[in-house]
Amino acid sequence: MFTEDAPIFQQLAARIADDIVAGVHPEESPVPSATDLAVFHQINPATASKGVNVLVDLGALYKKRGIGVFVATGARELLRTSRRAEFRRQYVEPLVREARALDIDHATLRQMIDDEESSQQ
């Protein structure tokens, strides 16, 4: 279920974020408690709480004392914006650097991307 690529709390936060982006957890809806997440994923409750708190600190979730944790208004767009920035940093910037190093011009690079997209359909 979890891999050794990253700490479990980060993977849990990413899964909850995936669900928010996918609309599984709409804005202002509750998310499972850290206790429920710990039981479901068979992990330490402190680890589950730390994963939830990553998204609270980001502003995607908020806590209502004594009631639970909820998806913040604007959370989906917040997470999408954050992921777009990460996508650019992790994939686009290295792609452009490598294309320059190989003297691949913008039009050729765009055509390569278009060709790849067509082959995926």
Secondary-structure class:
mainly alpha
Kindly report the average pLDDT value: 95
CA radius of gyration is: 19 Å
Give the CA-CA distance, first to last residue.
29 Å
Q: Biggest sheet: strands side by side, in what order?
A: 1-3-2
Helix proportion range: 55-70%
Total of helices: 5
Account of the 3D structure:
- The chain contains five helices and three strands, in the order αβααββαα.
- Helix 1 (8-22) crosses helix 3 (45-58), helix 1 (8-22) packs across helix 4 and helix 2 (34-41) crosses helix 3.
- The chain is elongated and about 60 Å long.
- It has helices at 8-22, 34-41, 45-58, 75-101, 106-120, and strands at 30-31, 61-64, 68-71.
- The protein is mainly α.
- Helix content is 65%, strand content 8%.
- Strands 1-3-2 form a three-stranded antiparallel sheet.
Brief overview, please?
By secondary structure, this protein is mostly helical. It contains five helices and three strands; from the N terminus they run αβααββαα.
Descriptive tags:
single chain, three-stranded antiparallel sheet, mainly alpha, 121 residues, 8% strand
